[in-house]
Amino acid sequence: MSAPPTETLLDLRGLACPMPVLKANRALRDMPPGAKLRILATDRASVADFQSYCRETGHALIAFTDTAGVLSFMIRRRAETSPS
C-alpha cells in the first residue's frame, strides 16, 4: 500500500507576476506525481497565470479561493508519462 499524496505549502504573498508561477513551477518539479501544492499569493494576475500554467503543463488546478485578498491555489502535480 502506498502513502497518500503529500501537500506542501508555498507562501508567495507579496510577490508580483511572474514570480508566483515561476516559484510554483520550481516546487512542482521536485514533487512526486499526485502530490499537492497549496500556493498563497496576493497578486491578482496569479488567477489567470495559474489557470494558464495548469492548462499548459497538465497539472490540475483543483481548488481556488480568495479570502480577504489572499489567493489560495491548490495544484495537484500531474502523473508522469511513461517513456515511448
From TrEMBL:
InterPro entries: TusA-like, TusA-like_sf. Residues 10-34 form the UPF0033 domain. Coiled coil: none annotated. CDD domains: SirA_YedF_YeeD (cd00291). Pfam families: TusA. Belongs to the sulfur carrier protein TusA family. This is Response regulator SirA.
